[in-house]
């Protein structure tokens, strides 16, 4: 009787092994699910970034305000007749005395 019980336990363990640790096991399913969630989060960030870039491209194509803003901020350009003032503050954010 003891041999029969031991044989059945070994047989059940042998049948359960692929379910828990094999190629298509639950462990692998959990890992893939985690990877899927991470990839979805990454995709959402990229979708938001692409939408912002798309809006910027549309704005640059349609209006001159965006081009003017970029020229001022990135290239330091000013219009004819304008005077450029640059205010420098102290380290703590208070204006100089």
Automatic annotation (TrEMBL):
The keyword Cell division applies. It is found in: Cell inner membrane. It is a single-pass type II membrane protein. It holds the Pfam family DivIC. One of its GO terms (biological process) is FtsZ-dependent cytokinesis. The keyword tRNA-binding does not apply. It comes from the Bacteria. Residues 36-70 form a coiled coil. Residues 1-3 are cytoplasmic. Its main location: membrane. This is Cell division protein FtsB.
């Amino acid at each position: 009787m003891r041999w029969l019980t031991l044989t059945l336990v070994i047989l059940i363990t042998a049948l359960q092994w692929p379910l828990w640790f094999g190629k298509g096991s639950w462990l692998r399913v959990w890992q893939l699910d985690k990877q899927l969630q991470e990839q979805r989060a990454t995709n959402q960030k990229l979708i938001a970034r692409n939408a912002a870039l798309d809006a910027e491209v549309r704005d640059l194509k349609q209006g001159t305000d965006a081009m003017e803003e970029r020229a001022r901020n990135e290239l330091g350009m000013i219009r004819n007749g304008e005077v450029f003032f640059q205010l420098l503050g102290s380290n703590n954010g208070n204006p100089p005395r």
